[in-house]
TrEMBL record:
InterPro entries: Cytosol_ACT, HOTDOG_ACOT, HotDog_dom_sf, Thioestr_dom. It holds the Pfam family 4HBT. SUPFAM superfamilies: Thioesterase/thiol ester dehydrase-isomerase. Keywords: Hydrolase. It comes from Halohasta litorea. Its EC number is 3.1.2.20. This is Acyl-CoA thioesterase. It is an enzyme of class 3 (hydrolase). The keyword Cell membrane does not apply.
Length: 160
C-alpha cells in the first residue's frame, strides 16, 4: 500500500452532556459510559485515517483522574499516533468542561489499538502515518512518549 494519511486526517472530537442516565448515585459519570465514548471516538479516528471499518483490538491502562459531574460537558478527543501493517494506535483524551464557569480539566486518557477491515471483514493494510507539520509531529511524539511511560510504570508495578 503506497497511501499515506496524516494525524490531522484522523483527528476527532466528540462532545456529550452528562445527564442522569449516565451517572452513578453520586451524580458522576459511570466509568463504563466514559469508556464507551472513548471507544467510539477512537474508532472514528481510526476509520477517518484508514477509510475502512475498524474494530477495537485493545485498550491500555485507564486512570480516571478526575470525576465528571452531572451537567458538565464531556469532550473526547482522539487521533492516530502510530500504525502497523493492519493496526492503528489511537490516543484518546477526555476532559470535562463546566459550561457555566468556563473551566475545564482533564479526566481520563488511554491508548487504543484498532484493526482495519476490508469488505469481507479481514484485516487489511492501512496507510502510512505522516506528520507534515511540527504541531502534528509534536502530538505524535507526545503520544509515543506517554505510551512508553505508561508501559514502563506498569512493568515497574508488576515487578514490585
Amino acid at each position: 500500500m503506497d497511501e499515506t494519511a496524516t494525524l490531522v486526517d484522523s483527528y476527532t472530537e466528540m462532545t456529550e452532556l452528562l445527564l442522569p442516565n449516565d451517572t452513578n448515585n453520586l451524580g458522576r459519570a459511570l466509568g463504563g459510559v466514559v469508556l464507551h465514548w472513548m471507544d467510539i471516538c477512537g474508532a472514528i479516528a481510526a476509520m477517518r485515517f484508514s477509510n475502512r471499518q475498524c474494530v477495537t483490538a485493545s485498550m491500555e491502562h485507564v486512570d480516571f483522574i478526575s470525576p465528571i459531574d452531572i451537567g458538565e460537558v464531556v469532550v473526547v478527543e482522539a487521533y492516530v499516533f502510530n500504525v502497523g501493517r493492519t493496526s492503528i494506535d489511537v490516543k484518546v483524551d477526555v476532559r470535562a468542561e463546566n459550561p457555566v464557569e468556563g473551566e475545564e480539566r482533564p479526566t481520563t486518557s488511554s491508548f487504543f489499538t484498532f484493526v482495519a477491515l476490508d469488505d469481507d471483514g479481514v484485516p487489511t493494510e492501512v496507510p502510512e502515518l505522516v506528520c507534515p507539520s511540527e504541531a502534528e509531529e509534536a502530538l505524535r511524539q507526545e503520544a509515543v512518549d506517554g505510551r512508553k511511560e505508561q508501559l514502563s510504570e506498569l512493568v515497574d508495578r508488576l515487578e514490585s
